Amino acid sequence: MYLLIAMSDPSASMISKIATKNFCSDYLLGEGGFGCVFKGWIDQNTFAPTKPGSGIVVAIKRLKAESFQGHKEWLTEVIYLGQLRHENLVKLIGYCSESDNRLLVYEFMPKGSLENHLFRSVQPISWPTRVKIAIDVARGLSFLHGLDANVIYRDLKASNVLLDSNFNAKLSDFGLARDGPTGDNTHVSTRIVGTRGYAAPEYVATGHLTPKSDVYSFGVVLLELLSGRRALDEDRGGLAEQTLVEWADPFLRDSRRVLRIMDTRLGGQYSKKEAQAVAAVVLQCLHMDPKNRPSMVDVLTSLEQLHTSKDMPRTPPPAKLHHHHHHHNHHQGIKHTNPPRKTSITNSK
């Protein structure tokens, strides 16, 4: 049995037990370097374990006992997700740390990860759903970068974007998140972790982290949504180590050629104008100089304009917007997970 501390009320009165029977392989959702993620069921009010199929369904991440780095990331996740509440961040329901047992309990996200849907699933995601997912992710990042939160997410990739039953997208896995720069500082200096293919070039080169590092990674995810190709794909042929960004760059720069990179699984079912507008946003996000990348709020504005006006200019000018948080309705109680593999740039292909 584990003691579960509920995020809603971390006082002793709200501590309940989570049964180890949840940890049988039938309910394994995935595993990675950090440990495993299981599906479990708990009572909505007492947080006590219930029979499979009753109560609310949750995802339980269980860390490997011996991993020090894992503990650091576990703590980071508890601190950030425990304090941050937003409809586009996966909800942390509770956590547990007893001797060697470290658990995180999240809302369960029934549709799994964006990575699964883009690259593994039989059923392709429609164009309007892709645009909506991009807007959700942009909204989550805009919230993190805002004055209230001031957080750099640092590990945006398709496997960290989780989808609820209505394809609402939420960011998961805050183990690598960092406080953003404060005062006169322009960046945070940190060891270089993250995922090759998604990490911003200046961050890989110097370890200097800014919110614009997340903007670059967002550009990569947006490019994956457009092209249906992985950020890093061993099968791309030609230059073995060519990233998706390098491959797509010449097409993105020419609006007449840009449609050649579109995901063939869309079967041509998308607005050409919208696709060109999204490609223009991708190009801005992937600018080599972080100062020339738009902020996430500007990116969000561009994508939302595209969503609202079907009759739009070819490349929407990024609107200059100051601090604004979006709080749209979104269903409570829809839930997470498909665990991302943690890869560090140095040791992964």
UniProtKB/TrEMBL annotation:
Gene Ontology molecular function: ATP binding; metal ion binding; protein serine/threonine kinase activity
Bias kind Polar residues: ranges: 340-349
GO cellular component: plasma membrane
Annotated keywords: ATP-binding, Cell membrane, Kinase, Magnesium, Membrane, Metal-binding, Nucleotide-binding, Serine/threonine-protein kinase, Transferase
Compartments where found: Cell membrane
Composition-biased stretches (Basic residues): 320-334
Lineage top rank: taxon: Eukaryota
Region annotation (Disordered) ranges: 309-349
Domain (Protein kinase) ranges: 23-306
Active site: D155 (proton acceptor)
Listed EC numbers: 2.7.11.1
Protein family: Belongs to the protein kinase superfamily.
Family annotation (PANTHER family): OS01G0588500 PROTEIN-RELATED (PTHR45621)
Name recorded for this polypeptide: non-specific serine/threonine protein kinase
Organism: Citrus sinensis
